[in-house]
Amino acid sequence: MTALNILSGGAAQGLVRGLTEAFKAQTSVGIDGEFGAVGIMADKLTAGTRADLVILTEALVAKLAQEKLVVPSSIADVGRVETALAVRSNDPKVAVKTEADLREVLRAADSIFVPDTKASTAGQHIARVLDRLGITYEVASRLKIFPNGATAMRELAASTAQRPIGCTQATEIIATEGIALSGSLPPGCELVTTYTAAVTAQAAHPIEAAALIALLTGAARKELRQRVGFAG
């Protein structure tokens, strides 16, 4: 079967998975590709990796458009995703209303599961938050850093630590069995990221790529987007 190739941030993996059957029924085309840290996915496209479609942050897609690597007229926002806290499903959820609350929660954790702090949206933000809270060095030995949020959350679910916690995009938390969305980051530490889709300039299947963007962004899929963690 012909497959559409995607390079996407991990935040969109649950949504794409939820649309795979509908897309296949509509186009007779499957979906293949990679989901990971957005910076790495953008670098892959820049380096020549073949893809029909990208789903990355709004800023990265705009940069790719300037570099003529995506078709400007195809660009469409999928929705906004917040960076949030996660706990194992059987652990009590943590209440974090202020920066002081977050500082104490992170200090109390014996393992902190996060995505790549250099190439992923959530990971970069977490690094800034730790610096803002003044605890970067204090918790450094407890940071468990993985290539992307999905992997970090699977590792959190399997963790045998006594008081682990995770932080990544809400969509990746919701999509992972064995963990639960614990809550938003407090004012001053919050992050909401807009994810955007675009057909690549070298797409082998541009018509099908545009059809998937229509599914991702269409009003008929609003409930699915909300269920997997997208807003707006």
Task: Note down, in words, how this protein is organized.
With 232 residues, the protein is of the alpha/beta class. It is built from ten helices and nine strands. Strands 1, 2, 3, 4, 5, 6, 7, 8 and 9 form a nine-stranded mixed β-sheet that branches. The protein is elongated, with a radius of gyration of 18 Å. The two termini are 34 Å apart. 44% of the residues are buried.
Largest sheet: 9 strands, mixed
Count of alpha/pi helices: 10
Choose one word for the global shape.
elongated
**Gyration radius, in Å:** 18 Å
pLDDT averaged residue by residue: 95
Determine the strand fraction and express it as a percent band: 25-35%
- Secondary structural class: alpha/beta
Order of helices and strands: EHEHEHEHEHHEHEHEEHH
Number of E strands: 9
What distance lies between the first and last C-alpha atoms, to the nearest angstrom?
A: 34 Å
Regions with little confidence, pLDDT below 50 for 5+ residues: none
How helix-rich are the residues, as a percent range? Answer: 40-55%
